[in-house]
Amino acid sequence: MASTVLITLGRLPKAIDLVRGFARAGCRVIVAEPFSWHLCRASRDVDRCYTVTAPAVSREAYRRELLAIIEREGVDLVVPVSEEILHVTSLHGALPRGCRLFAGAQAQLLALHDKLNFIRMAGSFALPVPATAALDSPEAALIAAAGDYVVKPLYSCSGKGVQILTRGTALPAVTAPCLVQRFLPGGVQSTFSLAHEGRVVVTAIYRGTVMSGTVAVCFERVETPAIDAWVRGFVARTGHSGFISFDFVVDAAGQALAIECNPRVTSGIHFVDPAALARAILDPGAAATVPLRAGRLFQQFYPCLTEAQKALFRPRDRARHLHYLRAARDVVWSASDPLPFLTMTFTSWQILALSLFRGLSLGEASTRDIEWY
How far apart are the first and last CA of the chain? Predict the structure, then answer.
């Protein structure tokens, strides 16, 4: 069992769940993060933090600095968290003996991250997906003429570059490779899963109840058998190991259609017991299942508070926002580790500054320096 774990991002609430889970499993936890101050830096469960070059600045420097930390600290297990996983996978083949990276090969993850390739892959498995085509293809024009449609970059996150256009609207002129996808009416449901060699160990299915832009900051766990079956089918066909997450729309007939894949952790991790999840990552072959937490409604308090304040002068939204602000449990607060919650405004300043002074959404500000371009 690993004794020293390196978490490769510390700024997001999903990272604090991993930190606390590994600490409860008896591990020493180290965090590598491009931001000098971040959420996990305040946690009593973190033994040491390192500031590293952001991969968007220099992939080679980022890789070199991670390897130096792994050697210096005697790291046994490397666990990526968010978009940086696509860069961290370059460590395969360079890690010292006895160190394991909890992520698949870079080519495998990029094939899932590519939104058009993912749709084609799922379609080849006869799994339901919406009509989708490359923006510069003849099929794209047919999709745009048939109904409302979505245009989005092949590689993107946090809703960056996504456009929802009405039927018959001319296809936009964009420089980045994009896809066109039939717009599916209905609410989006998302998943987070841990898989091992084609077997799903745990899946949490949830829907956003309060949004900050396109990012959910309050989320409710739901049970949708069609989505659960879809995830199990895809994981089995691909033989996937590691984290994997999807976004779905369920149509009026109850059919679940996947609209994109995120081969990383999502906010669904907050519905999973952290210590049990850590133990399953440490020894994935021994994990039969991982239990879910008892709670069904979780929030990121400070963004939810901001959205509630914005809704004060919108009577139709005000009561709903205040309800979720009161009813949902915060994902960061812990009585045994209170500082990450209490100092969040300070430790998140670099994200807040990008949002305030550069006009980015919080989601974009959180990921712009770790995205895969």
Answer: 35
